[in-house]
Amino acid sequence: MNPAYIKLLQCFDSIKERIPFKPKVALILGSGLGDYGDTMDIVSTIPYKDIAGFPQSTVQGHKGQFIFGYVGIVPVVCMQGRVHYYEGYPITDVVLPVRLMKLMGAEVLFLTNAAGGVNTKYSAGDLMLISDHICMIPNPLMGENISEFGPRFPDMSDTYDRALRDIIKEQAEQMGIVMQEGVYVQFSGPSYETPAEVRMARALGGDAVGMSTAVEAVAANHMGMHICGISCITNMAAGVQTSPLDHAEVQETADRVAATFSKVVTASIIAIADAIN
User: Fold this and answer.
1) Is the pLDDT of residue 61 over 70?
2) d(Cα 117, Cα 184) in Å, to the nearest integer?
3) Domain 3-275 architecture
4) Which listed residue (4, 79, 211, 238) is catalytic?
5) DSSP string of 4-18, one letter each residue
6) What pLDDT is recorded for position 236?
7) pLDDT (0 to 100) of residue 31
8) 211 is annotated as an active-site residue
């Protein structure tokens, strides 16, 4: 049996008695966006440190726990802090949390992140609906295929589900919130991208850059989950803005748009759950 699959089953077995319900939506909160979890009707939490063999989130601002709660009447499992490739974990560990949430029963993966704006028409504070991605780090499906999850060569034509994107756009429009839509490019980090790398991303068709998300979407797509994602453009990328990039700026911008982000995510989760019922 695939070692990554064995480890996943061990993680699940160590907490299955503590999972209070079958979640419909799995939500991953990116840098600066973790406080959204506190707005949910929380039923229980499971710290990552309580899960056997589970990778620990080491990034400032990532609380490192699963939250189980309700958004409206929708049962949601929420990651308050994700795992990044740059933290030194193997790529199979980076996507282990997504696979674990699928084992819990989640049908939808809602990804969020803080990202640098590559598209010069964007501004810090914009929300960008992810329409597609370009992944510049190793594919998490390399190695022996976990056939229990999906095929050796999964199709990626509609990774960020078009129907879900339409729902999110509709919810944003109803609230008068302007939302960009574009392609997200995942680099490894932890160093920010160079101006040349940002120019490359733009030439390839990228609109935003970051250090997460794409590999999680690949793993979720392999497992047949419905996927959607929103990037919070917390800064303009290197070469687009003249000032040095700073993680504090990411947090400050995320705090500034937190209310708007929260409204869109809440309304979208409720509408998506209703649509896939």
Assistant:
1) no
2) 10
3) 3-Layer(aba) Sandwich (3.40)
4) 211
5) HHHHHHHHHHHHGGG
6) 83
7) 73
8) yes
